[in-house]
Amino acid sequence: MSFAEKKGITVASGFKLQAEAPIDARYVVDTIAERDELVTIRAAYDGLDVFVKETGKKYMWDGSQWEENVTGTAYTHPTTPGYQHLPAGGTAGQVLKNNGNGTGQWADETDYTEEFNGKVPVSRKVNGKALTADITLSAADTGAIPATSKGSAGGVAELDNTGKVPAAQLPSYVDDVIEGYLNAGKFYKEAAHTTEIAGESGKIYVDLQTEKTYRWSGTTYVVISDTIALGETASSAYRGDRGKTAYDHSQAAHAPANAEPNVQSDWNVNDTSSDAYIKNKPESLPADGGNADTVGGHTVEADVPAGAKFTDTVYQHPASHAASMITQDATHRFVSDAEKTAWSGKANVYFGSDLPDTAPAGSLCFLVV
């Protein structure tokens, strides 16, 4: 039954109406269709609760749609690990210890046997220092070089930002170079060996005559590096200016040093050591300049034409010949295009007891009885 068919109830004065269900028929309906009809006839308001017998559920209208009212359930405290309460018992001074997954037990606070099992005792030491407090290790404790040793006397050299030792920390001879002339084991300022230079350790001495470098050992001058000296001996390098002159000369066109003037060859010279001697010449030559009656066994102007040219080219016969090169006779003649056209235009003639199955147009057929 729809709401349009439901009738209202009129109560006479003095009577009290008592019903087992709510007087407002909107609170309880039979089907979902009746619930939705409340919206259609504009009988639903925001917050209206309606129980539908068909589904056995209660719904509330929120102004735009029906929301199902979910029935609440009683709270049940979980019993899984992490939700269990503190265990009963225990005495003052005791602590709670783990007794399994999510459970605990009371135990004496001083009983830490399990907690410290395998731990390092305070009696242990590091580089002689007990573990009773924070330990600070010095460079000597770890075998490291102290920072105060960097660049100091008896310490270690430093490196600059390019990875090199600063000049201030290098020996003096690196920057202290003395030039002079070595003679008889002594260094002099002048090439004439007049003023002697006293030898000092930590300095480099350069002999300007040989360009070799020396150091003072305390008693004598010792070669630091056996440098190459210029000269023209087996122990020296050749002068670069002379070497360049020789190289430039080798690149220019020239005759060897032992070259001789050209000598005209002479047929009559028989001295084999002479430059004019002609090797491998024939014993004699034909008269009148070498003309011969035959060439390779062929008679000139008979087998060999007078205008023949001798080359290294091997004759190759052509694959075709021009028509002008062919001589016609009674049985070998050319046919012109006009003759071929005339012959092709003649009718085909057939002789037989029956007509042919096919024949070109214009053909003549003769039946022979």
Distance between the termini: 116 Å
Spatial order of the strands in the main sheet?
11-10-9-12-13-14
**Radius of gyration over C-alpha positions, nearest whole angstrom:** 68 Å
Report strand %. 15-25%
Give start-end ranges of low-pLDDT stretches.
none
* Structure summary, number of beta strands: 20
Largest sheet geometry: 6 strands, mixed
Mean pLDDT over the full residue set: 78
In DSSP terms, counting alpha (H) and pi (I) runs of 4 or more, how many helices? 4
General shape: flat
Region (Disordered): 245-266
Can you describe this structure?
This protein has a 6-stranded mixed beta sheet with strand order 11-10-9-12-13-14, with no helix packed on it. A 4-stranded mixed beta sheet has the order 1-2-3-4. Among the domains are: 1-70, no CATH class; 172-232, no CATH class. It has 4 helices and 20 strands. The mean pLDDT is 78. It is flat, with a radius of gyration of 68 Å. The chain has 369 residues and is mainly beta.
Outline:
Residues 245-266 are annotated as: Disordered. The chain has 4 helices and 20 strands.
